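Input/output pair, single chain:
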Amino acid sequence: MSLDDLVTELDRRLAAADAALTADYRGDRGVRQPVHTVYVPADRYDVRTVEDWGAQARAAMDEYAGSAADLAKILNVELADDVYDRVRAKLEREPIEDLRIDFEDGYGNRPDEEEDAAAIAAAEIFAAGEQTPYQGLRIKSLEAPTRRRAVRTLDLFLKHLGAIGDGFVITLPKVTSVEQVEAMVHVLETLERQRSLPPLKFEIQVETPQAILGADGTALIARMIKAGGERVTGLHYGTYDYSASLGVAAAYQSMEHPVADHAKDVMQLAAAGTGVFVSDGSTNVLPVGDAVRDAWRLHFRLVRRSLARGIYQGWDMHPAQLPTRFAATYLFYREGFDQAAQRLRAYLGDGESGYLDEPATAAALAGFVLRGIECGAIETSEFDDHDLARLARRAAPMP
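Output:
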């Protein structure tokens, strides 16, 4: 058998595996990942929500950290005036990157007529209000007790929403089975047909032990992603529901508990190469009253920890968490930019870096720089956006 004949035979033998790899691991979607998701209970959402969150975040900085030196002292880090100014500018320009109107735990169980009215009002406000790069709603779970309510709220919201933008996403909480993901796909397909809607996207909240390990001992997250196909855009870790379900005492429930790290390790493995974003959860220690400085230090440290783990998104539950969200994020990208740029230049044949980087690492370096640009942490004319996107293996650069 000639070499050509052998390769032809291999192509035949591996055709199905090649097709499955392409279908299941689509790679980077070529879109910006938000650095956070802000959850606002549906009854507290109004047309000024984004503006008010930004104003409250700036007011917290005015009261507790009126300068870069003040914030640096609280956080025990070096913080240049330029970084402080960028955070302030971000809170003016784009305080929320991803907004979720919450009809689940943040809203609670209400009489049907009350939630009906809230769903309609939220949709109308949403259609008329200030838009964020990503936005949507979190419905109740598809578990039997809340299933009807979840679908009814989603249907009413979509009915009164009007046009749906590219950044619209639905959060499906407390997922316990692959079948629930398949059911969500069916719900969306049905509503799309009935209301002549474009394809709807959703993210899976991982906050039950059943999502990580099924009753048969198999890991289900990868199967959930496959079941949702291109509709699934993200996996969001639910800190407190997940920890409580494993019996972790309330005082020890945290984004950095070992059970949290294990769940997020599984999520990252399942999502790798699929184009599905992974988001960390939240801390329920809020920067209010006398606890602002301590809460800021905790939140800053947790955000930095997530970034170092390769998890580039998290939840924020209070406006005063925004200063430390952006301070931690901006420092992360600015501190790493010089080395990343040097290594990218060396990879492209322009100078030396002291590293022998392979294509996969070059992709990670380019992705790092792109993320920093997209969130406003850095500005650079050193690399063309198309070159960065190509190196990062993105479908296209972000607009």
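Residues 322-347 form the longest helix (26 residues). The chain has a mean pLDDT of 94.
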